[in-house]
Amino acid sequence: MRERFLKTGPPCGAALLRALILLMGLLCALPLAAQEVAEDTPAPALSAAELGAMKARISELRRQARALRQPATHTRALTLDEALGQIPRPHSPGNIYRWVRDTIAFEPYPGALRGAQGTLIAGSANAVDQALLTSALLRRAGHTTRFATGRLHDTDIREVLTRLASTARVERNGEAADARAAGIDATLVARLRDHIWVEVEHRGEFIAVDPIAAPLVGMTPARTQATHEQLPDDWATTLEVELAGHLKDTQRISHLTVSGPLSRYAYRTLTLGFEADPTRRRGRIPVLFVGDQSSRGQAIPVDALESLELNFRLKSGAREQRWTQTLYRSAANFDIFAFDAQHFSITLMPGWSSDGWLARRSEAAAEAALSALQSYADALASDDADDDTLAADTVMHELSAMMPAAFIRRLDRSIVQSAHRLGVRPVLSQPRAVVTASLQRGDQVFVDLQLSGDRVDALPLGEVPAVASAAFGGLYGHLLDTLTAEFLEQHGGRQMLTVARIFGRATHQRVAFTTIDARSIEKLDALRVNEVLRSSLRDRVRRQGRVILSPVQPVEVDGVARFGWWSVDPLSGGMRAHPTDALLAQVEHGESKTLSTARHLDLHAELVARSLRAAASTISPPSLDGPSICVATRELLALSRAFCATESAIASPELEVCLQDPQGGQVPISASADMLGLAGGSCVERLATTRCGAVYTRAVAQGELVVRHGEPDAAANAGITPPAPPCP
């Protein structure tokens, strides 16, 4: 009976099969009953006392789920109807224009990423997503609209960006710092010249509704070039997700592909599960669920499988972005298909999260799960429980979305806090994919997650110097590495592997490090890694222009050889961690355990409880994440000096120099080029911005520099945010 529940689909079709797979994707590393029993053995019935205890626990968990929706977490409208409820009546074009202008912040990323509802959730958007929201609100209110496209003058763009930059300044030891303000980026100005807005029919003619560039409804400074009934294709964004397998004989198989407008997947969770292939021993058929829609893919030959990966392709007009997330890589002592069940999920986040969004998402998922759990308990306690009842009533809908939602909310809060501390405005330039994995073995569920596809840029505020952008880029990579492990350890109960930990063990074991860039690509041949990884590293260096720092060989961590590296984008100064292990590669081999039905129910209830605690701890009133920021700052400074080093660490530039020049006095990358046409400048020159960013971050973290937000002459300094406590 248990075998049928785990490995076959329920008779009610795709919807119940989807929920079945989602149950296995709840992200929490704690025991879960799963021992298979013979199909002809009836499920043990619950006693009246056991049923009563379970109902009492479910009632308490429901109370905890409802408690997530505190009034403070629901001030932001998350749906069109809620937004219209906040807009004064009548819902005229003027009132809708003013609400969008005053409620949705401008965020200058490229392409249509968030759509109308995603813009409400994020609370910020670029011109195209604000146009989509404005049009949707106007149409919901009964108005006729169309889109208009045209060009903005540079003067108008600079006015918009000046409003976005707000007011901030840097003080050093209590006095105004001698720093050169970043000013407005000319590249960003050029990107914003193409503009889109909404026109609404009013008294027989169409008038402009432009909440970004116009001071009043009916006006826009843009020069109209065309009007469109629907969003033009050049402004639309599509997403393609492919599941691909690499076989041991080097064959590549495209098992499954889904594609469509990005808005179809935005702020949703796609789930990937596997069915047994009736035509092949040890074969698996992948099944991908998007809402109630399911797609079955080409069978996976497990015994011949080398690796599984997700390939993402994002296309917006002429721009295209691709990235890959490895799900599984075979090893001598690791085979995900030897576990009782496997589950992956992909949560697409094209914008920022909010407490209200997390609370609503978590409450709905918990309520669905608890209703199914109670029905399951009732069926087991009855005299007529059978396989169909077991399969149908133990399904817990949507729980796989709770943990990644809590993680991304915690990450967003840390991003905002660190950006505020450094004096920059973060810009989420590309959608994020939170890929999660869970493996079930007997009475245990092992879980992992990784963030991919993301790019977070930073715009210096007010009089803040340009080096602050590089400082944020470096700090963000370290925060992501640290917070991912902290989150999984807090809610999963086992120590996670970070690249920082790999580097620490390498230093302890006296393993040498090497820097690889376009001028030293031959160093890849000396790394003790497999050819697949070597090829991936070569692509990052040659095609993406990254500079890589890695150990020269895998490092022993907890008795297992591990490898990871850091990469830097020389143009932005951004730094990222790259663990080479696929998701859940740290899971050790073990045996299953048999648990009673009552214990089985208890452990499912504990899964819900752990997920609710993750959401509640994330929604709780925020405090500055000082320890994580301090740890990340120290690691950033050390690594910035390790890149390009040969015999000893590279000296950090002086803070005074970096406040004036983010290159630290080095020749700018664009001003130098070698005879071979490779990336301009030496390794030391190319990473000068990264080192300056690390010096600025250290000065802010230790309190030498303080970013003041607000006007200096405001009454009682009411608009100035007090600085965070300095790092030790």
Automatic annotation (TrEMBL):
Pfam families, per database record: Transglut_core (PF01841)
Residue stretches making up the Transglutaminase-like domain: 95-211
Gene3D superfamilies in UniProt: 3.10.620.30
InterPro entries in the record: Papain-like_cys_pep_sf, Transglutaminase-like
Protein name: Transglutaminase domain-containing protein
Organism name: Lujinxingia vulgaris
